[in-house]
Design a protein that fits this description.
The complex is a heterodimer of chains A (626) and B (502).
Chain A: H1 2-8, H2 12-28, H3 32-59, E1 66-75, E2 78-86, H4 88-111, H5 118-136, H6 141-159, H7 166-197, H8 202-208, H9 216-232, H10 241-244, H11 250-259, H12 264-271, H13 273-276, H14 280-301, H15 307-327, H16 331-358, H17 371-374, H18 376-390, H19 396-410, H20 414-438, H21 454-469, H22 481-485, H23 498-521, H24 526-532, H25 534-541, H26 546-591, H27 599-625
Helix pairs in contact in A: 2-3, 2-5, 3-4, 3-5, 4-5, 4-11, 4-16, 4-21, 5-6, 6-7, 7-9, 9-12, 9-14, 11-16, 12-15, 14-15, 14-20, 15-16, 15-19, 15-20, 16-18, 16-19, 16-21, 18-20, 18-21, 19-20, 19-23, 20-23
Chain B: H1 6-23, H2 29-53, E1 62-70, E2 75-81, H3 85-102, H4 110-129, H5 133-154, H6 162-195, H7 202-207, H8 212-229, H9 238-245, H10 248-258, H11 260-273, H12 275-301, H13 306-327, H14 330-361, H15 372-375, H16 377-390, H17 397-410, H18 414-421, H19 423-439, H20 458-473, H21 476-493
């Protein structure tokens, strides 16, 4: 009874934040504090409901799948529902999204204190939470696309939240447009599905797909669908928007651009795995793009100086990890990493926010230093987050990263395994480079800082605790409970491999130690290294010049074509129109000389007319007679 | 079946308003504006009533009125609405009502302005509710006169003079209508020959099985006539210049509903009466439509005048409507009708915001602005709403139109559809660039004196914004009647197999 009741009311989870958005937007924007309180209260209710849903779903050994839908748009031959699909995958996502959203909204009370746009901020936070949860519970591609675009909108609005800055304005625009490119492919994929299968519902598609396994059309469709995640989860070559998205307020970066929205792409791959895993070439493509992004972004993160940008490239790299896991069929591992990453990466971002807040918007790590003195809570929670990210046992990141590496190793993808291990080394190095420079180090620039208020530090502590513990649910110590519940068609679990575990732990420790030597002990002079490897350093520091290439292409090809076509429209099409008008005008001008007011010439025209008529009448008569 | 001639009332209340205004002394500006607002409000309320009380379970033509008028020509004063015309009637009134408020600050020749505006609104409404070809054409011609006068008298001169713009708009309209007239007479004469009696009734004409060659010939005339009105590439040149020159209310009505008469005519008259002709010409329309979508979107990228941006963007969006019409199946035509409604509210909102800004700042050049969201947050909301609708964001009614057209067209013209869908990227680029340059960035002190929207200026934002969001969140409200109308219309064609879904 209770079970059914909870699931039947699960629609409230996305609905409540939407309601909050409407209430703030329509009535409450004059009272920012009240808006914030309402928003937090509603997301808290959603969180409690999500916990109950999770209890129901995981409390049942057989696994629960609950699906319901209401008609949204329909006509003969097309039907898009707004549905609710609750299975273990959804339950995990609901928990992660509502929990991080709740903590971020509480934290924002401190971080955004006194901002004139506070009411709008909470309105946007609410519509984001609603859209993200709507995406998570979707039971069909139409619904997922709707919410997919809406989370993109929220991302746009929140990146550009401080719209008075030119950089924020540009970053918001770039994020939306880059995502649109991905969505173009995603939409085409959805249209193909609709046209070929006549439905967008996941379970109906899942029944129809196997008949088409490995057919050319399905390879095409799955590659088109993969465009969506490439944009949303910022995979190469559409990754360029995510680092710039750091222009938004830091809690936004934590929630949207680290923990939840950017993970929507990975979630989509998991959700639509029944399509992707019927097409071997697509899986290879996914694994390659993911692996490449992981390495590529980690290499950029090695040399960045902005605390948020380092974390942003780290997010890119970790998303690459998850996508790679999906591509090698280690979906459970990928989802597990999504979950743990959501916790420790939002912890890291919120920690960075705490630092930025304390230093009055300073983001350059070289202008920080020795923060640990004045900001102990921030420092030690940040270190926990970094340890988890680096994969130091027994923190959560270790278990989930290990699952992915194990998947690659046991699945025979040795190249990707080596790549993943290398990335793990780089990750540990760049994270502890950040920590030694900003939080310890000899630079005293950070000593005037003050620890943030409790409203900010308590969420940090909660997230730190979760970051330590969350990994155990998926660890071999607990019998891989996570994998037991969150499994997917075709998922294979591999037995724990102690060698893989040991190697990944050692390599992470090695990364930390190297960072310690370079940036704390300064046994190796990093400034000299920078000069010695100037070319490489510049390449990495300028993000492989990819933004510059895109800017050049857009300027010359897109805007160039626009200029040419504008010229064509002005001078050829409008020119033709004006020419026709001119010819008409001229001929009228010329013909008016026939209207000269002389009665004799009028009589002449009349006579000529009569002759013509007469002749034609005679012709008609003769032809009729003949 | 209905005792009250509700459609006639809806149709003529603005004319009654215009007559009262004509009787008022011209310095009674307040009274003139109130009467305009009141009469358009009554029409809006009545059309909402029609929309709500229309019996969705039976469908078909409802609220029928028919009075024989010219016996020898088979003309009757016949009105009625079905699922296709009803949303467009509602659209006309939503925009008409908003247009009155968008013109609230008109100071010159107030009396003449509102008289002409009200007549214009009636003219546009008439084309959607007429079920007689003659009446349809008559209302279509009624529209031309006020448009011309409104543009040359209250318009604005920028890249082109308002006289040039007004003349261009009018002549294009007239050329289109000349072709239509030829087609219409040909239809009438041929039908009389085949039926043995004269009729102008659209449904009766649709029952006539015209020879295929004749259908192609007449449909080609209509595709040119209506296509010009719908700014089909390459006959779109009137559209950007015309909107740029026209006063705000005319831009709203013209872009919002008047050009939709083209799309409506292609479906109601072209496709319904001449299905074989429609099928033959459709691929040509589909190819030209790519010109609309992609070509016009590119040109938007290099425009700096806000009205030109929205003008070209409107040409671009009409490409989607044309593709929907050309794909000839229930889904695509549903999408086309929905898109006409959606584009109508969106374009009208855009033009009313631009008009408001222009009135206060006397410039429309994007580069002159920046950071307007600081001084004018409500205006910024209006612009953003229109902009997001324009790029087809889910949650706005425009997404429903675009998505449905894509699904419908994709099953017929894969390549055309894929090229057209690139439009969603290009639209995002030019809309977001414009919004960013206009609204965001550092505050510019030179615009500190601008007043945000207030009082009557809020009406267009509220009315049109509500329509955009309600239609986007509850699409069935609008789509269900459209779908029943389109299915009904295609079922009557039935005899001719056209592939696609039906």
């Amino acid at each position: 009874m209770i079970l059914q009741n909870i699931l039947q009311n699960a629609w409230l989870i996305p609905f409540l934040p939407f309601l909050t958005f409407a209430l703030i937007g329509l009535f409450m924007h004059r009272w920012p504090k009240l808006s914030a309180a309402l928003s937090i209260a509603m997301i808290a209710v959603s969180f409690v409901l999500s916990v109950m849903v999770a209890l129901v779903v995981f409390g049942n050994a057989e696994g629960v799948v609950y699906e319901t839908a209401t008609r949204w748009l329909s006509m003969p031959g097309l039907r898009v529902d707004m549905g609710l699909l609750i299975d273990p995958l959804t339950a995990v996502m609901l928990l992660v999204v509502t929990l991080v959203a709740l903590l971020v909204q509480i934290y924002s009370l401190g971080y955004m204190h006194g901002d004139p746009g506070l009411a709008s901020y909470y309105a946007y936070q609410s519509i984001f939470a609603g859209s993200m949860l709507g995406l998570v519970v979707a039971n069909n591609f139409g619904q997922i696309f709707v919410f997919w675009e809406l989370v993109g909108l929220c991302s746009y609005l929140l990146i550009g939240f401080w719209f008075g800055r030119n950089s924020a304005k540009e970053a918001a625009k770039k994020a939306f447009i880059t995502n649109r490119v991905g969505d173009f492919g995603f939409l085409l994929g959805i249209l193909f599905l609709q046209v070929i299968f006549g439905t967008l519902n996941f379970s109906e598609l899942a029944a129809a797909i196997p008949a088409y396994a490995n057919s050319g059309i399905l390879i095409g469709i799955s590659i088109l669908l993969f465009f969506g995640p490439v944009g949303k989860s910022a995979q190469f070559p559409l990754h360029v928007w995510l680092p710039d998205a750091m222009e938004g307020p830091t809690p936004v970066s934590a929630l949207i651009h680290a923990a939840t929205m950017v993970a929507a792409g990975v979630y989509l791959i998991a959700r639509a795995m029944f399509i992707f895993n019927t097409s071997a070439p697509t899986m290879t493509l996914i694994a390659t793009i993911g692996g490449f992004t992981a390495l590529f972004a980690a290499s950029i993160a090695l040399v960045q100086n902005d605390i948020k940008r380092i974390l942003a490239y780290s997010t890119l790299s970790q998303l690459g990890y998850m996508v790679m896991a999906m591509g090698i069929g280690a979906m459970t591992a990928g989802m597990f990493h999504l979950m743990t990453h959501a916790f420790f990466k939002s912890l890291l971002f919120l920690g960075a926010g705490s630092v930025i807040h304390a230093l009055h918007d300073e983001q350059d790590i070289w202008k920080m230093g020795n923060l640990s003195k004045k900001m102990p809570v921030t420092t030690w929670t940040f270190v926990i987050g970094a340890l988890a990210l680096s994969g130091i046992p027994p923190l959560s990141g270790f278990w989930s990263k290990d699952e992915i590496l194990l998947g690659a190793f046991a699945g025979g993808h040795i190249g990707l395994y080596i790549l993943g291990t290398l990335v793990a080394f780089m990750t540990a190095f760049y994270m502890f480079r950040l920590i030694f420079v900003a939080f310890f180090g000899k630079n005293t620039a950070g000593e005037h800082a003050h620890e943030s208020p409790a409203v900010m530090t308590v969420p940090l502590i909660i997230l730190a605790v979760i970051s330590v513990l969350a990994g155990f649910v998926g660890s071999p110590l607990m019998n891989n409970a996570f994998a037991h519940y969150v499994t997917f068609a075709g998922a294979v679990h591999h037995e724990a491999n102690l060698t893989v575990m040991a190697v990944s732990a050692v390599i992470a420790l090695a990364g930390i130690y190297l960072a310690y030597l370079v940036y704390q002990k300064q046994v190796i002079d990093h400034a000299a290294l920078k000069i010695r490897f100037r070319g490489l350093y510049n390449l990495l520091y300028h993000k492989y010049y990819i933004d510059e290439c895109y800017a050049w292409l857009i300027k010359h090809f897109i805007d160039g074509s626009a200029k040419i076509l504008e010229w064509f429209d002005l001078y050829v099409i409008n020119g033709a129109v004006n020419a026709i008008a001119a010819v008409t005008g001229r001929s009228g001008y010329a013909l008016r000389y026939t209207e000269n007011g002389q009665v004799q010439s009028y009589a002449l025209y009349m006579f000529a007319g009569i002759v013509v008529l007469l002749v034609s009448a005679l012709c008609a008569v003769f032809s009729a007679l003949a | 079946m209905n005792h009250m001639p509700i459609l006639s009332l809806t149709l003529f209340i603005p004319v009654i308003g215009a007559i009262i205004i004509m009787a008022l002394p011209k310095d009674q500006e307040k009274a003139i504006k109130y009467i305009s607002a009141l009469s358009t409000f009554i029409s809006l309320a009545l059309s909402l009533l029609v929309f709500i009380t229309y019996d969705r379970s039976t469908g078909g033509m409802q609220f029928i009125e028919s009075i024989p008028w010219i016996k020898d020509l088979g003309v009757s004063y016949a009105l009625g609405v079905d699922g296709i015309s009803m949303p467009l009637l509602l659209l006309t009134n939503l925009i008409g009502f908003s247009a009155v408020y968008a013109s609230w600050n008109i100071r010159e020749r107030v009396k003449e302005f509102f008289t002409l505006l009200l007549i214009l609104i009636t003219g546009v409404m008439g084309t959607f509710v007429a079920t007689d070809l003659f009446i349809f054409f008559m209302f279509y011609e009624v529209v031309v006169i006020p448009i011309y006068l409104l543009v040359i008298m209250w318009g604005s001169t920028k890249r082109v003079t308002k006289e040039y713009a007004g003349m261009k708009l009018t002549i294009y309209l007239l050329i289109g209508s000349a072709f239509l007239l030829v087609g219409l007479i040909a239809l009438f004469v041929t039908a009389q020959g085949m039926l043995g009696y004269p009729t102008m009734d659209i449904t009766k004409l649709a029952g006539v099985d015209f020879p295929v060659g004749f259908q192609i010939f007449v449909y080609a005339l209509m595709a040119f006539g209506f296509g010009t009105l719908l700014s089909m590439f390459p006959f779109h040149a009137w559209s950007p210049d015309g909107y740029a020159g026209a006063p705000t209310a005319v831009s709203m009505i013209h872009a919002g509903v008047l050009k939709k008469i083209g799309g409506y005519g292609l479906i109601r008259i072209g496709l319904f009466i001449l299905p074989a002709g429609a099928k033959f010409i459709a691929p040509i329309i589909a190819v030209l439509a790519i010109g609309n979508v992609v070509y016009a979107a590119f040109i938007c990228l290099s425009q700096k005048d806000l009205k030109y941006i929205v003008g070209y963007s409107s040409v671009s969006h009409m490409g989607y409507v044309l593709i929907g019409i050309a794909a000839l199946n229930v889904i695509s035509i549903n999408g086309a009708v929905m898109m006409m409604f959606a584009h109508g509210v969106m374009a009208a909102l855009f033009f009313s915001m631009i008009g408001n800004l222009y009135e206060k700042s006397h410039t429309r050049n994007v580069n002159d602005f920046g950071g307007l969201a600081h001084q004018m947050p409500r205006l910024a909301v209006g612009f953003m709403l229109a902009g997001l609708a324009s790029l087809g964001l889910p949650g706005t009614v425009n997404f429903i139109g675009e998505f449905t057209i894509f699904v419908g067209a994709f099953s017929v013209f894969k390549v055309v559809a894929i090229i057209a869908i690139t439009g969603i990227i290009l639209t995002a680029v030019y809309i977001l660039r414009t919004m960013a340059d206009l609204l965001y960035g550092p505050r510019k002190e030179q615009w500190d004196h601008l007043q945000d929207l207030k009082g009557p200026e809020m009406i267009p934002l509220i009315v049109l914004g509500t329509a955009i969001l309600v239609g986007g969140i509850f699409p069935s409200l609008v789509m269900d009647p459209i779908s029943s109308g389109v299915s009904g219309l295609l079922a009557q064609i039935g005899t001719i197999q056209m592939g696609g879904i039906f």
